[in-house]
Amino acid sequence: MKLTLDLACESKQEWVDAVMADFDSFLQDHADCERKASAMAMSFVAKYPDRKEILPELIETGIEELEHFQMVYKVMESKGVPLAHSIGEDPYIKRLLKLCHSGREERFMDRLLLASLVEVRGAERFKLVAEALTDAELKKFYKMLWVSEAKHGHIYVKMALQYFPEDQVYKRLEWWVQQEADILNSLEIRAALH
């Protein structure tokens, strides 16, 4: 049983350049993404309270993502960067969500696999940010986040495998990986996580 997934494409150097050129905007978006990730984990708890096998891990993930938000906020405070006035729409997530099935069970699996994919993409991008930064403390911070996000990518696949046949999960995951690459490559590059 494979819990990791391989992305179909790598983020472009142009994305790294855009982030480094406007790091304040990246921090604001990053903070928003951590809040959304926490809310997503907790929305699984709210929508699927009968899935008792995964509730403890979902709650733990929601708390960890909220702690990440707190850490990003502290970085922002130290740099005098305010939180964004409102959480903007994420075109990457919006386009991915449009591809989810609508049936309750199918949508449950899709949302878990999508969560996995988004976390793995986040890990890949945090690694690139860590490698590009010159500030030692920020570099260390983004390396820690990169490791954490990679772990979250694995737990959502593991959750899907608790409820769906392995071949169904991996077939759908393979499809999602290709869709994600197509969407990522079609989006405008900006100083944002996605």
Walkthrough of the structure:
The model has no long low-confidence stretch (mean pLDDT 93). The chain starts with 12 loop residues before the first helix and ends in an 8-residue tail after the last helix. α3 (55-79) runs antiparallel to α6 and α5 runs antiparallel to α6. With 194 residues, the protein is mostly helical. The chain has a single domain (13-186), classed as Ferritin, core subunit, four-helix bundle (Ferritin), CATH 1.20.1260. The protein has seven helices and no strands.
Task: Describe, in short, the structure shown.
It is built from 7 helices and no strands.
Write the topology of this structure:
Blueprint: H1 13-21, H2 23-47, H3 55-79, H4 91-97, H5 104-132, H6 136-163, H7 166-186
Helix pairs in contact: 2-3, 3-6, 5-6, 5-7
Number of strands: 0
Report the average pLDDT across residues.
93
How are helices and strands ordered from N to C?
Answer: HHHHHHH
User: What would you report as the Rg, rounded to the nearest angstrom?
Assistant: 16 Å
- The CATH class assignment is Mainly Alpha
Structural class: mainly alpha
Count of distinct structural domains: 1
Stretches where pLDDT falls below 50 for ≥5 residues?
none
- Taken from the alpha-carbon principal axes, the silhouette is globular
- Number of distinct helices: 7
Give keywords.
globular, mainly alpha, Ferritin
